[in-house]
Amino acid sequence: MKKVRKIIKIASNYSIIRKAILTSIIVGTILNLINQGNLIFTNQIAEVSITKMSITYLTPFMVSLYSTTTALLRKDLLLLTEN
Question: How many Å apart are CA 54 and CA 77, to the nearest integer?
Answer without folding.
Answer: 34
